[in-house]
Automatic annotation (TrEMBL):
GO terms for cellular component: cytoplasm. This is O-acetylhomoserine/O-acetylserine sulfhydrylase. Its cofactor is pyridoxal 5'-phosphate. The modification N6-(pyridoxal phosphate)lysine is found at K208. Pfam families: Cys_Met_Meta_PP (PF01053). InterPro entries: Cys/Met-Metab_PyrdxlP-dep_enz, Cys_met_metab_PP, OAc-hSer/O-AcSer_sulfhydrylase, PyrdxlP-dep_Trfase, PyrdxlP-dep_Trfase_major, PyrdxlP-dep_Trfase_small. Belongs to the trans-sulfuration enzymes family.
Length: 427
């Protein structure tokens, strides 16, 4: 496959050849758990990681493999490994790179589930995370020590859509020969390509826009192949692994991360993506660019409407000039910002509830990135357990509404919002 094909071409073709036996043009759904070997020597070589090949679907599967290769191509990476969910992908990456006692520097505005795992279960297992304001580069750098294994940020902050100076963070990581990991779930590789701006590894919850229809879970880790693992910071990559005839992963260069993630993490912890989910995800992925363009154009129309509505106090959408991240958005997101943003309605908690209780076309859920338009009222759901102070520190006011603009006709979306705003006191 010509790696220079445009995004829209790669999203349909990368990673796939017509099936040599059936001549099928579509990706085949291969549900077999096991794959046979040609002979004893080939089996031995595959087990010793000396030869590629499928043998058991927890480690590799032909349908999942097409998705892995396609995502690597779309992101400009050298390889990718799929997991059962975005959470499994992120924790799988940490398990691949870190051992108990190691430290992670993580942004304090990550997806709530990631903060929960890092500060709860992962801390209990000995992986310590420092949560920092990702714009405070001095504090970020001051936390780096010999145990630090990665800086982990999200391309778009949750829930206010703030962005980071990715190139500046990458510079700090390069100086300390430290991994820079970006969770690029919200923009997708169509709107933002972290590897072009210095990320070493990109992770996704494919559950969201990649699959795109709100009907299949998944996650994936994409490796840029640019990180030099011959580095004292990563002994798991530089010391021989007895499980595989003393292989040294760092010596596999571009293949180091993906090989270890499959041969150790998927082998020992499971968490693989099911072939059926890969098949569904590939189906969604074929139209990613078309969908994202429509999410972007719909969002622009909805944001403009919100801006002019009397019931709305503020709109936090990075394409508007008054947003803190306006300039970063212009620099890093040339195709547009995307479909997820927040706005504040008048009347605080009561105003927020009025929206949720009267909206008809939008669905009230805590998910985002569906083909359907969705609304969340964080103060009564995702952020309800927090103190007023914690909530405000997370950028969530009582009247904050998070909106995930779907693929419907924007006229209907705006009409739906209009009829709810008529019910909100604007005096
Ligand atoms: C949803 C999400 C995750 C977790 O993914 P799951 O597929 O739900 O496990 C991680 N990061 C971000 C940014 C997300 O939006």
């Amino acid at each position: 496959m010509n790696k220079n094909y445009q995004f829209d071409t790669l999203q349909i073709h990368a990673g796939q050849k017509p099936d040599p036996v059936t001549k099928a043009t579509g990706v085949s759904l291969c549900l077999s758990n096991a794959f046979t070997f040609d002979d004893a020597d080939q089996a031995r070589n595959i087990f010793a990681l000396e030869e590629g090949g499928y043998f058991y679907s927890r480690l590799s599967n032909p349908t999942v493999d097409v998705l892995q290769q396609r995502m690597a191509a779309l992101d400009g990476g050298v390889g990718a490994v799929a997991f059962s969910s975005g959470t499994a992908a992120i924790m799988g990456l940490i398990m691949t790179v870190c051992q108990s006692g190691d430290e992670i520097i993580a942004a304090n505005n990550l997806y709530g589930g990631t903060i929960g795992s890092l500060s709860g279960t992962m801390t209990g297992m000995g992986f310590h995370s420092h949560f920092v304001n990702p714009r405070d580069l001095e504090q970020m750098e001051s936390l780096i020590n010999e145990k630090t294994k990665m800086i982990f940020v999200e391309a778009v902050g949750n829930p206010n859509g703030d962005m980071l100076d990715f190139e500046a963070i990458s510079t700090i990581c390069k100086k300390h020969q430290l991994l820079f990991v970006v969770d690029n779930t919200t923009p997708t590789p169509y709107l933002f390509q972290p590897i072009l701006h210095g990320a070493d590894i990109v992770v996704y919850s494919t559950t969201k826009y990649i699959a795109g229809h709100g009907n299949v879970m998944g996650g994936i880790v994409v490796d840029s192949g640019k990180f030099d693992w011959h580095n004292e910071r990563y002994p798991l990559f530089t010391t021989p692994d007895k499980a595989y005839h003393d292989i040294i992963y760092a010596d596999m260069n571009e293949g180091a991360l993906c090989t270890k993630m499959i041969a150790k993490t998927l082998r020992d912890l499971g968490g693989c993506m099911s072939p059926f989910n890969a098949y569904m995800t590939l189906l969604g992925l074929e139209t990613l660019s078309l969908r994202m363009d429509k999410h972007v154009s719909n969002s622009r129309k909805v944001a403009q409407f919100l801006k002019t509505s009397k019931a709305v106090e503020w709109v936090s959408y990075a394409e508007l000039e008054d947003h803190d991240s306006y300039e970063l958005c212009q620099k890093y997101f040339p195709r547009g910002f995307g479909g997820l943003f927040t706005f504040g309605v008048k009347g605080g908690l009561a105003g927020g509830k009025t929206v949720i209780n009267n909206i008809k076309l939008f669905t009230h859920v805590t998910n985002f990135a569906d083909s359907r338009s969705l609304l969340t009222h964080p103060a009564s759901t995702t952020h309800a357990q927090m103190s007023e102070e914690e909530r405000l520190a997370g950028g969530v006011q009582q009247g904050t509404i998070r909106i995930s603009v779907g693929l419907e006709n924007p006229i209907d979306l705006i009409d739906d919002l209009k009829q709810v705003f008529d019910k909100i006191e604007t005096e």
